[in-house]
Write a structure and sequence with these properties.
Layout: H1 2-52, H2 55-91, H3 106-116, H4 139-151
Helix pairs in contact: 1-2, 3-4
Length: 155
């Protein structure tokens, strides 16, 4: 029974970890968006001041506009990088402890081997994935498959 709990706990951990990472990336994008808004607001103020400024103040305002433009470009690049990171998080499949796929893995391979000798246990047991492979994998599913294969059970 503990192996089922450990397998389910591991599956939940693997499913929830990307959610926390995506939440952090979303928070970072929100903060960057706020900073970009402040830079744009400041740029508008400086541009208005530039129109009404004399010669000495105009040079200072142009330097500040250049800094604000650079800051805006860097913020745009940071937002682009954060969005790319979020997309990559969504594309990476979860991995188990030994690098095998987290949902399936060795238990699914053992099931396919058992199915090749005529054993079919899809009717009962833990949640099933495609082709009746165990949805969460793990040693308990592998033991059930091996036991069924050794006695030639058909369900």
């Amino acid at each position: 029974m503990e192996t089922h709990i450990a397998d389910i706990t591991r599956a939940i951990q693997l499913a929830v970890a990307p959610v926390f990472l995506l939440t952090a990336i979303g928070t970072l994008i929100t903060a960057l968006n706020n900073r970009l808004g402040r830079a744009v607001d400041r740029r508008r103020i400086v541009q208005e001041r530039l129109q009404d400024a004399g010669r000495g103040d105009a040079a200072e305002a142009r330097r500040e506009l250049a800094r604000l433009a650079q800051r805006s470009r860097l913020i745009y690049f940071a937002i682009l990088a954060a969005v790319a990171a979020a997309l990559l998080v969504c594309l990476v499949p979860p991995q188990g402890a030994n690098g095998a796929p987290a949902f399936g893995g060795s238990a699914a391979a053992e099931f396919n081997e058992a199915a090749s000798v005529g054993v079919h246990i899809c009717a009962a047991g833990p949640p099933q994935g495609a082709n009746c492979a165990p949805a969460f994998g793990g040693s308990a599913a592998a033991e059930l498959i091996n036991e069924a294969a050794s006695v030639g059970v058909h369900q």
